[in-house]
Amino acid sequence: MRLFISTGEVSGDLQGSLLIAALKRQAVAAGLELEILALGGEKMAEAGAILVGNTSGISSMGILESLPFVLPTLQVQRQAIACLKQNPPDLVVLIDYMGPNLGIGTYLRQHLPQVPVVYYIAPQEWVWSANLRNTNRIVGFSDHLLAIFPEEARYFQAKGAKVTWVGHPLLDLMQNAPSRQEARAKLGITAEQMAIALLPASRRQELKYLLPIIFQAAQSIQAKLPEVHYWIPLSLEVYRQPIEQAIELYGLRATVVSTQQKEVLAAADFAITKSGTVNLELALLNVPQVVVYRLHPITVWIARKILKGSIPFASPPNLVVMKPIVPELLQEQATPENITQAAMELLVNPSLREQTLADYAQMRRCLGDVGVCDRAAQEILQMGLGNEKTTSDRS
């Protein structure tokens, strides 16, 4: 069976790699041989995909922010379509990555309607509610949507999609996470030392908009809590130099690591982090956090005034339960002073920390059961087998 998987960015590459590992497990159990072609990154290649294009560095959030990536995005989209045209697969799996995947999905529906399309982890149109046209396109070309959030499943089902809620794949990933004690031992962090994780960037634009305000807040917290030490895991190695320069500029006591993100998250007493999948990892590890995000002011103005977009929450832990269980400081609220204040409250107030942990437990119950990736893989392979049979009958 030949599958084609399309995704982008660091988080998409991670989710794609988890899915590929599950597909291979399920294929072995079913006696199937798999060939997987993909748009993705290094993690997917390591999991066994043949990369048609590497998309892990082609990522942005926002309107103006996406302009530098228009040509690279069109190029990988063309590469994908050329591959699909030359070697039509038995099934296509799209993972998030809205811009390119909308184009690929539309092409498949128009030119290769016999190829089933599964959307696994749909773009968060259900959060933004700004562009119903995109929602209708996703529903129109997707034969099956595998949702990871309960609200995502309800939204797309109401719009007419065939939806299965499989649960959140990070549940599977976190089964192998080290304990706090193991992580601290591996990193050489003593029991009495305060460790704070700083997670400023997985996209280049975040180095500009988020890193300075997060590091200024870290500087203020360090002045109040001299025993603190910061740990900064790199999402991409190319970010090492600007991050190390910023550490020196702000005089932070910090360690940068490139291959030990799991250990840093598990060892941390607290985290100051950009909005993204990592928020959910921290929540599953019971690490209190403050979530920060900023976009270009013009992007925000367009979203608010022209697109009339609004979001209830930005971080996955809050989206799961649709209530503010972690502090979110977005756009104008994302200032060093506000970050410092929110962080200090969580660091020195035991009752606030206990409330956070109780809210995390509630959130965890809403994520489904372990085995998410295998459930998704089973759904995908069953559809692929059904299409193989249909194709065989036609011939």
Would you summarize the structure shown here?
With 395 residues, the protein is an alpha/beta fold. It contains 19 helices and 13 strands.
Question: In words, what does this structure look like?
Answer:
It is built from 19 helices and 13 strands. It is α/β, with parallel strands linked by helices and 395 residues long. It folds into 2 domains: 2-167 and 369-394, Rossmann fold; 176-365, Rossmann fold, CATH 3.40.50. A 7-stranded parallel beta sheet has the order 3-2-1-4-5-6-7, sandwiched between helices. Strands 10-9-8-11-12-13 form a 6-stranded parallel beta sheet, sandwiched between helices. Strand 11, helix 14 and strand 12 (289-293) form a beta-alpha-beta unit. The longest helix is centred in the C-terminal third of the chain and has 23 residues, at 372-394.
- Tell me the CATH architecture of the largest domain: 3-Layer(aba) Sandwich
- Give unreliable regions as ranges: none
Provide the CATH superfamily of the largest domain. Answer: Glycogen Phosphorylase B
How many DSSP helices? 19
**CATH topology category name of the largest domain:** Rossmann fold
Structural classification: alpha/beta
The CATH first-level class of the largest domain comes to: Alpha Beta
- Beta-strand proportion: 15-25%
How helical, in percent, are the residues? 40-55%
